[in-house]
Amino acid sequence: MRGETALRKVLIANRGEIAMRVARACRELGIATVAVYSTEDRDSAVVSYADEAVHIGPAPAKRSYLNIPAIAEAALRTGVDAVHPGYGFLSEDPDFAEVCRDNGIGYIGPAPEVIARLGDKTAARQLMAEVGLPMLPGSVEPLQSVHEARNLADEIGYPVIIKAAAGGGGRGMCIVGESADFADAYTRTRSQAQLLFGDPRVFVERYLTSARHVEVQVLADGMGRAIHLGERDCSVQRRQQKLLEESPAPLLPPELTDRMGAAAVRGAVAAGYLGAGTFEFLLGPDHEFYFMEVNCRIQVEHPVTEMVTSVDLVQEQLRIAAGQPMTLRQEDIVRRGAAIECRINAEDPDRDFAPAPGVLEEFWPPAGPFVRIDTHAFPGYRIPTSYDSLLAKLLVWAPTRPEALRRMDRALAEFRVSGPGVRTTIGFLREVISDPRFAAAEHDTSIVERLIQQRQVKEDSNVAAT
Amino acid sequence: MRGETALRKVLIANRGEIAMRVARACRELGIATVAVYSTEDRDSAVVSYADEAVHIGPAPAKRSYLNIPAIAEAALRTGVDAVHPGYGFLSEDPDFAEVCRDNGIGYIGPAPEVIARLGDKTAARQLMAEVGLPMLPGSVEPLQSVHEARNLADEIGYPVIIKAAAGGGGRGMCIVGESADFADAYTRTRSQAQLLFGDPRVFVERYLTSARHVEVQVLADGMGRAIHLGERDCSVQRRQQKLLEESPAPLLPPELTDRMGAAAVRGAVAAGYLGAGTFEFLLGPDHEFYFMEVNCRIQVEHPVTEMVTSVDLVQEQLRIAAGQPMTLRQEDIVRRGAAIECRINAEDPDRDFAPAPGVLEEFWPPAGPFVRIDTHAFPGYRIPTSYDSLLAKLLVWAPTRPEALRRMDRALAEFRVSGPGVRTTIGFLREVISDPRFAAAEHDTSIVERLIQQRQVKEDSNVAAT
Amino acid sequence: MTAHDGEALEQVRHHAQRLLANIPSQPSALRVRDGDVALDLEWQTDGNGARPIESPAPGTSDPPPDSGTTAYLTAPTVGVFYRAPEPGATPFVAENDVVSVGQQVGIVEVMKLMVPVEAEAAGRIVKVLKDDGEQVEYGDQLFALEGADAE
Amino acid sequence: MTAHDGEALEQVRHHAQRLLANIPSQPSALRVRDGDVALDLEWQTDGNGARPIESPAPGTSDPPPDSGTTAYLTAPTVGVFYRAPEPGATPFVAENDVVSVGQQVGIVEVMKLMVPVEAEAAGRIVKVLKDDGEQVEYGDQLFALEGADAE
């Protein structure tokens, strides 16, 4: 996509709220849009919003949103200048980026080689270690034998985590508490990695027991310019699924977040990154941070950064993909106040967050000052069963974190969603933000499990009392 | 209300979107709310949103939202600390502020004496002239005779405008183009002023033929501290009704808006102002500005200022009314980017903007990045016929005015409102923002009449063609 | 002053005329305003003064009459309901009394103003629904009435 | 990698088994992934290779059949529809031909992949709805079929 100075038409290779997000950014920039959709999404908001729409396959993602030939065909047929992959689906698939390039279709994201390299945990670790990003004590190279691996683990000290080199999103990893358990866990993780990713390589690193998930947003124009837009704290997770994100990460000294930002920029430049990307770090209670991975795409939680920096990240993606040199400089990024995002999922917190889809008889999001909604849902919308359960993202901004929490609570209380069988995470999210440890920012990634246990204890005692 | 350090409970003496706005601010500050409502508003959003609600009278405003004894009774009965008057209705009635004070009820706004003085055009002009605010050439004192008045008008030069001292909102005023017409117009305006306001006093000033309406937002804590939060341009008006407001006022040098802001602060301090208020100015094509009047209340268009300053004006009103010293200093007010507000009214632009109410079968506001909605409407809402036709305020923010206009256009295009008999100003507002003179900020207060004439010409030629 | 200016002077005059036509006793003051539309009428509130009769509200939050012949006399304002002219005095009306249109049946005190409650319909009082001294809101049902409209 | 992780490995396996059970010809490759849930199956696309038979989509944007006995053969992918194996050759099928389940009736070319269109139902072709070389989307109706299912 380099060398062009403007995009005239973009295909959105995604669905749900992010497809609407991209379509809105395109419209604001005067770029025509092509939606692609599966049979189950034929009545979706983006299909009517976009200038054109192509029916690319049936409900299963493999035959629609993951169907590279169908999407490439739609892109060529409609004559788009570029494809926006959104998040999930094909957004970090180097093959897709390569097919686009081979067919003269712009890809809104980094080059396929960069996606491939950063998507390989081992290769990414090696690269980032070379430019001085801090790593958890462990192996940079994949391990060659169980003997070598256990020696390393004993040296690091327990607990350690064994991770698949090709893994991600919490799959293909195993925590080991003591030396005696190591050999079994090692063998098991390798088999699992082979099964899941077709790649048995694993490595070992120190496991942090009370860590926060803090990530840094970067923008890079591929011409050697890269900036960071501050960090997001995504510690409120359930089984690696983020439920709530915020910026700034609370209680961190600016000196620390500046160092994290600088590290991310260094990594982005070293990788030859282009577009919007995220550097994920683990942050220990001692405020030491460690590189985890790079997400080569726009993220679900990107609006948190947009609210504190006033930068439209999707518009920036489009500008960079059009080959425009980045006009934003690091000193232009002024971060103000605090922003929080809550993910409103169609899930039942009382039934282990099982998907609880249905037809939305009522869907009325909150509004008013310093509130933002990103959603593809609307009254009468039938939540499809083939995809993830994200229904809406609710964001608030306020000068300080305590004010933002109060604003979020009032906004969550306003949100009306109902329909037969439909349950949402709204009530659970209100419990999260009113949790005293969360309010004091003393939480870590274990907060959600703790709150679920509290709910169950409460329920059990209610049952016992009746 | 002075001397308290916090409000525990507030009565909202208003309806519609501003009642929701105040209720949200209260909830965010942990303040309980009491709604008052007329029979026609019994199913309104704020009635279910507030912690308590009191039915104060039938649909006609005179017996409900303008019914001072009923509202005071509701305030005393529910034990509120203060009353928020919103805008319109009793918001600038010194009697209401006085009844509140006499009964130990806090009033969220300036003292009754200040409201009375600033509500009298002559008294306000005198005070503001004393502290050096620029006035249009004309009489500061009300005129004593037609002879004196015509001599003055001849001296000023035509056109002149004759205004009722007690007037406001465009009523009780008359533009005179030449000396020969003056005496008749003078006599007629006096009679009209007597009839409308029970006060025949009038004054005369220069009439600017190509002026912009620019107003300055102030906050004052009544302890001598006052700051301004920049200006808003409200030149897009139809018969004194604002349709669209924006900040900053386009194409004005910062030096000029700084001077206007400083003038407003000087006026606020001189008047002993407390709370949020607005200084209205007329701005000539030569960039000379002239004091018009002070609005002693929060205004419809206050969110425009909130979006460029990130200050929550209604929360500030509540803090100031609680007697808390203002922590915001002038240097804290950093204005970023451009914000625009469009008023979505249930009116038919093709029928002279006649109210076009009904039941909202569909009501789906826009969302996404940097968009704000303030509304009391919802799907299924029956628009009452007894009150104004404001259905929603749609606001957008962007780094620059051209970007904000594009964002507003995409947001207006997303807004879906329909129901039997319901018409809105959405389409007309899209015409306004795509008008080349508006886009170039070369418009003045005549823009709406010009666009209406263009529509009619287009319609007529369509009719002729068929 | 631009938010609520939609109603023009003509409408105010028109309403004033309609209102005056419906008022049995001459008010002591009439003031028409236009800033946010006001229309003030005052009476001498000496306890015998009339209050304007409004056509019944198009609907209230109270349930509709449960029988075809039951009507309700409702509170003309938010305030405190009194059944008698002064403490200890005989109530204006009691159950089984027959009332005629315009007859005073109670008082609602709002901010020290005594607003007489007058029967908007004739009939026999079958139930007194609010106690003396009870707080009422506009439109609250005070008395249930059974139809004697034919008399 | 957290956005689309809702489906667990078990589900993927389960789907793989179901899919395999429905596929008449043995694929040449099978790959299960878990990063954003993938399940790749490959066949030798030599023109005679089978393609997976999916149960008909629960609904398409096309109108439903207008008679009880009319069925439609639809496009298995977005692409360019060809009626014949190569330019100038005889079309796979023509109007009035009777087709059986699994019989190839056309080709859709998507990104140089030739995807055979096979009859998902048996019957007589009463109308050819797309021309040779025409662009189609997934689910577009290609042929109208009248029921010969009983044979």
The level of helicity of chain A is: 25-40%
- Secondary-structure-based class of chain C equals mainly beta
For the biggest β-sheet of chain A, the strand order reads 13-12-9-10-11-14-19-18
What summary fits the major beta sheet of chain C?
4 strands, antiparallel
Cα Rg of chain A = 22 Å
In spatial order, strands of the major sheet of chain C run: 3-10-8-5
Mean pLDDT over the residues of chain C: 70
Q: What does the radius of gyration of chain C come to? A: 17 Å
Instruction: Report the uncertain regions of chain A.
Output: none
Oligomer: heterotetramer
Summarize the structure.
Helices cover 35% and strands 26% of the residues of chain A.
Structural summary, described in words:
The complex is a heterotetramer, with 2 copies of chain A (466 residues) and 2 copies of chain C (151 residues). Chain A has 466 residues and is an alpha+beta fold. Chain A has 15 helices and 20 strands. Chain A has helices spanning 16-28, 45-49, 68-78, 94-102, 112-119, 121-130, 146-156, 182-197, 254-271, 302-309, 313-321, 401-414, 426-434, 436-439, 447-465, and strands spanning 9-12, 32-38, 52-57, 82-84, 106-107, 160-168, 171-176, 202-206, 212-221, 226-238, 241-247, 274-283, 289-295, 338-345, 347-348, 354-355, 362-364, 371-375, 390-398, 416-418. An 8-stranded antiparallel β-sheet of chain A has the order 13-12-9-10-11-14-19-18, with helices on both faces. In chain A, a hairpin with a 2-residue loop joins strand 10 (226-238) and strand 11. In chain A, helix 4 runs antiparallel to helix 5 (112-119), helix 7 (146-156) packs across helix 8 (182-197) and helix 12 runs antiparallel to helix 13 (426-434). Chain A is globular. The mean pLDDT of chain A is 93. Chain C has one helix spanning 9-21, and strands at 29-33, 38-42, 70-74, 79-82, 98-99, 104-110, 113-118, 123-128, 134-136, 141-147. Classes of the chains: A alpha+beta (466), C mainly beta (151). Chains B and C meet through strand 3, helix 3 and helix 8 of B and strand 1 and strand 2 of C.
